[in-house]
From TrEMBL:
Protein name: NUDIX hydrolase
PANTHER family: METHYLTRANSFERASE, UBIQUINONE BIOSYNTHESIS O-METHYLTRANSFERASE, MITOCHONDRIAL
Keywords of the record: Hydrolase, Methyltransferase, S-adenosyl-L-methionine, Transferase
GO molecular-function term, one example from the UniProt record: S-adenosylmethionine-dependent methyltransferase activity
Keyword Transferase in record: yes
Lineage of origin: Bacteria, Bacillati, Actinomycetota, Actinomycetes, Kitasatosporales
UniProt cross-references to Gene3D superfamilies, sorted A to Z: Nucleoside Triphosphate Pyrophosphohydrolase, Vaccinia Virus protein VP39
Native source species: Streptomyces tsukubensis
The organism's place on the tree of life at top rank: Bacteria
Transmembrane segments: none
Database matches in InterPro entries: Methyltransf_11, NUDIX_hydrolase-like_dom_sf, NUDIX_hydrolase_CS, NUDIX_hydrolase_dom, SAM-dependent_MTases_sf
């Protein structure tokens, strides 16, 4: 950019596209560092990357004294370790890459929350990437996309151009935090026996035994949820103080969905005599010895009961895709007991 008018035009565009200075800007495919220099002179902290060592040396000389960092590396996989940036700036690079979609995903992952991609591209005679195609590639990754046509601004190019040239500023969709369902399970103990309920008409595990259980609802703690579920399913009027923790289990369903189950123990007689209060969801209640559980059980619940009988307190139960919901007597073991601090 030897022409001062061209530099001024690009500086004005960058001021509009980049966050307010000072921000951390990653310039990928920086070439000789022209845009990096404009960003650095505007007060940004710039890291400039190019795969060509001669280009990196030219950029390093051009950026001397600005505090900018120059690095040799592949723009599609920038060698920046775990660093994160406020803006990733890329000019006339994306169309040259073998997998533009994968590069865009990686670039989005380099941004801090609220960061942006600034992509300058073009298309002429079948070479490049049209703006509509780039917008389509960005759609699953971003919450906002703004495209500016640049072909009509002759100052950027040192003269008139007729091909498609544009800049796209894209703000990635914020990463969603992983969430898991929390459910509660009750082992009502009568000596060496536990109470199980046979599911019916629920759409999940119908015909199989499991312990009285349910989801924690918004605003409840796990003890409150267990007290409520015990009353709803087997008519027990428990208090939180009646409950003792049996174990905690993270469970992964065959679908891949995960949840955390809190299993509680209560002695028979606490809260009254269990009765089937939901006959439309439960076809029978029955007592079984802990060491002789029925085979026709929900695998998740059976793994919890077996861990409870073994004195295990923290357990993973991780189905693989294709596993049945029902316990399979000769099937692979899916439960893993976790070591507890202080145990040897």
């Amino acid at each position: 950019m030897g022409d001062p008018d061209v530099r001024e035009a690009w500086a004005a565009r960058l001021a509009a596209w980049l966050p307010a200075a000072p921000a951390d800007v990653l310039d990928l495919g920086c070439g000789t560092g022209s845009l990096s220099l404009l960003a650095a002179l505007s007060g940004h902290r710039v890291t400039a990357v190019d795969r060509s060592l001669p280009m990196v040396e030219l950029a390093r000389a051009k950026l001397a004294g600005t505090g900018a960092r120059t690095v040799a590396g592949d723009a599609s996989r920038p060698p920046v370790a775990a660093r994160r940036f406020d803006a990733v700036l890329v000019r006339h690079v994306l169309w040259t890459l073998p997998d533009p979609a994968a590069a865009l995903r990686r670039w989005c992952a380099l941004l801090r929350p609220g960061g942006r991609l600034v992509l300058v591209e073009g298309f002429r005679d079948g070479i490049g990437i049209p703006a509509a195609e780039l917008t389509e590639l960005l759609a699953p990754l971003t919450e906002r996309v703004h495209t500016e046509r640049l072909s009509g601004d002759a100052r950027l190019w040192g003269g008139p151009v007729s091909d498609e040239r544009y800049a796209t500023v894209a703000v990635p969709t914020p990463a969603r935090r992983h969430t898991e369902v929390v459910d509660v399970h009750l082992f009502v103990r009568r000596g060496d026996e536990v109470l199980l309920a046979r599911r019916a008409n629920t759409g999940y595990g119908d015909g199989l035994f499991n312990s009285p259980s349910g989801h924690v609802e918004e605003g409840e703690d796990v003890r409150e949820a267990m007290v409520r579920e015990a009353a709803e399913e087997v008519g027990l009027a428990l208090t939180p103080e009646d409950l003792r923790i049996a174990l905690v289990m993270q469970h992964r369903a065959p679908s891949g969905a995960t949840r955390v189950g809190w299993f509680f123990e209560v002695e028979h007689g606490a809260g009254g005599e269990p009765v089937n209060t939901e006959p439309h969801k439960c076809s029978e209640l029955a007592w079984f010895p802990l060491d002789a559980l029925p085979d026709d059980m929900v695998a998740y619940c059976r793994a919890g009961a077996k861990a409870y009988a073994a004195g295990e307190r923290f357990v993973l139960h991780l189905h693989e895709p294709g596993d049945p919901v029902a316990y399979v007597p000769d099937g692979p073991a899916r439960a893993v007991a976790l070591a507890v601090a202080g145990e040897r």
